[in-house]
Amino acid sequence: MEIIRFAELRSEPWRNGGGVTRELASHPKAASAQDGAWDWRVSIADLTKAGDFSAFPGMERVLTVVDGELLLLTVDGAEHPLEKYRPFRFSGEAAAHGALPTGDIRNLNVITRADSFKGFTSIIELSKKRAHPVFEGQLAVLLQGQATVSPGAAEVTENAEDGDTAAAPAEPEALNRYDAVVGSDVRSPEILGRGFLAVVSIDRVAG
User: Fold this and answer.
1) pTM over 0.90
2) pLDDT at 157 over 80
3) Which has fewest Cβ within 10 Å: 8, 55, 97, 135?
């Protein structure tokens, strides 16, 4: 079970000085969060002043405000008021400008190479009674509230002998705000709690 701890991530300032980015995951892993050498990237960015967004030619973006009230995003001249927890998709090569009428905000960003991958972001409300599994190709980010994550049930092997006792279940691990859980189809992690979770899915484009 892999957990990416937000508190341990390195922050990289934007080239225009308007904010900082913390990379949660990318593929292939790049030397810098800003160099665009990856085919997809999931990151969290803090915006502290209005300004232009960096262009990512050949990429597609899904941006979700996860803290703060409102981002006024202008894409190729059209203004889009983005409220909290409402994912918005746009071209990475579009001319984009962000204004902050209600103050600083924090965004969850999913950027994918358009001809190879497709990114999706879903916001779900957690439950203490029904665990939410995180599958292979997914990344689950705790946005708000309190939650724990446990490994899913292990597969039963054909070589198991009668009378064998099952291994003791692993203790749940607490998640802090913006910690991310990496999905798996072998033993899918399961998240329980109260609050909101962003589930990012990266699908390969058939081609």
Assistant:
1) no
2) no
3) 8
